[in-house]
Amino acid sequence: MGMDSTLAVQLLIQGVLLGGVYGLIAIGLSLIFGVMGIINFAHGQMMVMGMYISYWIFVLLGIDPYISLVAVAAAIFILGWLIQYTVVNRILDYPEAMQVLPLVSIGLILENAALMLWGPDHRSPQTALGLDSMWVGPIMVDTSRLIAFVLAIIITFLIFIFLKKSNLGKCIRAASDNRTGAVLVGIDVDRIYNMSFAIGAATTGAAGCLLVPLLPISPHIGHDFTLTAFIVVILGGMGNLLGALVGGVILGVAE
Amino acid sequence: MEKKTVTRAGMNRRTFLKVSGAAGLGVASATFGVPSLLRAAPKTIKIGSIQPVTGPLAVIGQGSRLGNQLAIDYINANGGINSMGGAKLELVLGDSESKPEVGRQEADRLINEGAVVLVGPFQSGVAMAIATLAEQRQVPFVMDVAALDAITQKGYEHVFRVFITAGGLVAGALKYYKTVTEAAGVHPKRAVVTNTADPFGKGMSGGFLKMLKGSGLPVEVVERIQYPLGIQDLSAEVARIKAAKPDIIFPISRIGDSVILLRELYKQRVDLMGIFGPGSPGWYEPEFVKDMDKLAFYSMTNVPWINPESPSYQRGNAAFLKASGKNLDTNSAYAYTGALVIADALERAGSTKTKDILKSLRETNYADHPVVGGAIKFNDKGDNTGALTALVQIQPDPDLLKRVRIVLPKDFAQSENIIFPAPQLWER
Amino acid sequence: MNRLHLLLVLILAVLSGLPLVLSKYTLGIFIMIFYYAYLGQSWNVLTGYTGHISLGHALYIGIGAYTSVFLAQHYGLSPWVGMFAGGILASLVALILGFLGFRFGLRGVYFVILTIAFAEITRLVVSHIEVLGSFSGIFLDFDPSFRNFQFRGNIPYYYIALTMMVLSLAAVRLIEISKLGRFMVAIREDEDAAQALGVNTFKYNMIAIAISAFMTALGGCFYANYIFYLHPDSLFGMGLSIELILRPIVGGMGTLFGPILGSFILTPLSEVSRAYFSKGGLEGMHLILYGIITILVVLFMPKGIIVYVRQWLKPLIPERKGDD
């Protein structure tokens, strides 16, 4: 294999693997948009919260981010639920410009809360597999990326199953297709909305865990991820979950 | 101020009116610049510190603010400004939020609160906004850190810089690179330059490339890689680096991307003789040294640096360690120096009038400072002619705090031994 | 002249007299109040009155700032002229954006995305143009004179900013009472219905976005010669676009005085809280507070604070018909 084609394959693999994580971040954004028509401008900041929780679990208890993932997702689920319950639920019928503002503000609050709670330092813990890599001939496969990719795909798959098969998932899809109709058949739409936002938040929290071994954490990086997720969602089609995954991979490769 | 509040509680309405009238007159005289003879001699002298304590550069901004503060505390603990009857210094604080317009507005607020000199602000962009304000308001402005040459090129009368210029930084990098390679008898042939695509990164790498080309050194830059500030993934960039087969990398980074770069170099097994930073953050911060551990070893950076032997450093560092649990680094040490230079100028001026402070700043000849370099003197542009860089290398030591060592210049070196070429990242 | 007009004249007289008693720093706060009120009012022309949401208005500030500075640096053109060149250029760009958006019927979130994309693309393009300073930005020379739009003290800036705010108010009032304004409001209330009734919605949308961009760009020229430093990230970035819409939304979108009221509340709030909390140990607190207050206002006063002010002022306002 020539030098150039090795480089190309290497770049492709790296891109696809990271794209899976981008996709997972974006799926949360896409779910929230699909169900409520809201763009969550605090999405990246919620992810950073997840990263910090995962980081501290690792530093204080020595539990690897891949294992603490479930706990972190649960914590961010609660955070998302609270944000939806206190703020987002009240702004669903507002014009878009006014929906933007509270969510941007939530992002600002989360970012600066992280600054006050954990300080401005860039933290990059040495996790067990943080520096591991595998070699296929001249091609390097980054172990943390591979794990992140596989877990991202699994989580995405689980969300799909949940939306297709479970009762609650069906209600979410119903509410997303037709709010009035959902109300008419007796679905508690408010509860569905809370669940959707919280699930969207939990997925981005989980994605944060997957990124802990890959990049330094600091309070202000959330904003960039909000934009990344936003671009991914546009690439994949607003509100289209599978599209988000594809969009993530496209962006990962393009970068 | 506090005293006024206390007395007000027990005041009837008439005396309150009288007092507030007098206070109003005081405000008015401050506003209209009524001759200072009418005012009492100052008990405290205010110095305005503007640093980016929130936002993406908060880690640097908070350290710099602390550096400013500890220098002031030191002066106050030693009797304040003797020439003004032991007047105490007070640091009034501003946050630039990393935004030029906020930095300007904050500087204006601090001047309004009575600051007679300004110090700060780390970022060149913010420095430009404040430099013009300092010129408009005719208040001296001592930049502790901010390297872009352009800031002092306008010939502003009120602007001084303790830090080295970008030009001086690059010249130091070449000088040390030459010394290191000649001493080792090893001459890398292929090099890659990486930089963040922000004013600092672009300016530094542009200057470095130009000077390297003109230097006659037997090294060729085969690839220049730029990436945006705040990037989260460098795997593609490192794959390109690997494909370029460099012997050495010259990274110009910020905090954060250096970690990502180093990890990718490790994971992708890029063969290197060494990493030589021409002058940028990212390669010596305590968090970096701790988190990267062995991977950080042997990387070298040309950087304006602390002088560990100097009494001023030992004093400053003890206080800094106590307050923050960290050692003074480049930015915090220069912030410490900037405030000391101001105190020295005030001491010699014996007055808080701009004219006198400017005169004494221009006559500065200050050697009792904590950084590598000669005595601080300002040229007609306001740049520090004594500014020097050092070459630091991360060397193995069980004590984290002792790993970052000066290897050049010889007069300041903490280790005679420069390790180059270095063992590969994965063979440590 | 009714009592409301009298009140306005009184306020204007007080504002005109403030430089006699206030310090330079306090004047600086007022300059920022006027500046953001002006920008908010410019944005209000498009979003407040037609309902098309722009989250990329920083684009026009950037164009105004860069154009006037470029013409001054390279052709010696006074910024007083250059600002209008910037305004015209901004209008042209806005018309291209508007054409894409309105011709293809992008509404709601999709129009928002288009405006963000235009600003982001321009930011990246400017970041790579060497004569515009690329990533390093432009550091303006300080050469105070009226011709150069540069002054040593804050007082001239104060009066310029105040004038701009008052003129923008007058301009929006003129639009409000004209046929144009009524069509714009019709578009905001129901674009399809307006079209069905024979309103050429495309034309009025295009006029609105061009006026809005033109006004915004003039603000950019002011910024350049007040701050003296231009950087693509701070002038075309989304942060500024959001900062800019905060005030009209908090004050009251689509109302004449909303943007001004919003700026008189939020700008000092951000200054004072930053000054108060920047004492050390609480870095970031002022931004948290800013965020919380914004959320509270949007949640509990969705029509803006102007509604409450209107109630207080009711005795002063004569009965009017069909006027917002």
Q: How many H/I helices of chain B?
A: 13
**N-to-C span of chain A:** 23 Å
Main β-sheet, spatial strand arrangement of chain A:
1-2
CATH top level assignment of the largest domain in chain B: Alpha Beta
Query: What's the CATH topology label of the largest domain in chain B?
Result: Rossmann fold
Helix content of chain B: 40-55%
Nearest-angstrom radius of gyration of chain B? 24 Å
In short:
The complex is a heterotrimer of chains A (255), B (428) and C (324). By secondary structure, chain A is mainly α.
Which key terms come to mind for this protein?
heterotrimer, B: 428 residues, alpha/beta, Rossmann fold, 2 domains, 7-stranded mixed β-sheet, 5-stranded parallel β-sheet, 12 strands, 42% helix, 15% strand, disordered N terminus, C: 324 residues, mainly alpha, ABC transporter involved in vitamin B12 uptake, BtuC, two-stranded antiparallel sheet, 2 strands
Q: How would you characterize this protein structure?
A:
- The complex is a heterotrimer of chains A (255), B (428) and C (324).
- Chain A has 255 residues and is mainly alpha-helical.
- Chain A has one domain (20-92, 102-111, 147-254).
- Chain A has helices spanning 3-36, 43-61, 65-86, 96-118, 143-165, 167-177, 179-184, 189-211, 222-236, 241-254, and strands spanning 133-136, 139-142.
- In chain A, strand 1 and strand 2 form a beta hairpin.
- In chain A, helix 1 (3-36) runs antiparallel to helix 10.
- In chain B, 42% of the residues lie in helices and 15% in strands.
- In chain B, the strands form two sheets. Chain B has a seven-stranded mixed sheet with strand order 7-6-8-9-10-11-12, with helices on one face.
- Chain B is globular, with a radius of gyration of 24 Å.
- Chain C is an all-alpha fold and 324 residues long.
- Chain C has a single domain (3-316), classed as ABC transporter involved in vitamin B12 uptake, BtuC.
- Chain C has 14 helices and two strands; from the N terminus they run H-H-H-H-H-E-H-H-H-H-E-H-H-H-H-H.
- Chains in contact: A-B, A-C, B-C.
- The A-C interface holds A 33, 37, 39, 87, 90-91, 94-98, 100-102, 104-106, 108-109, 111-113, 115-116, 227, 234, 238 and C 47, 51, 53, 55, 108-109, 112-113, 238, 242, 245-246, 249, 253, 282-285, 287-288, 290-292, 294-295, 298-299, 302.
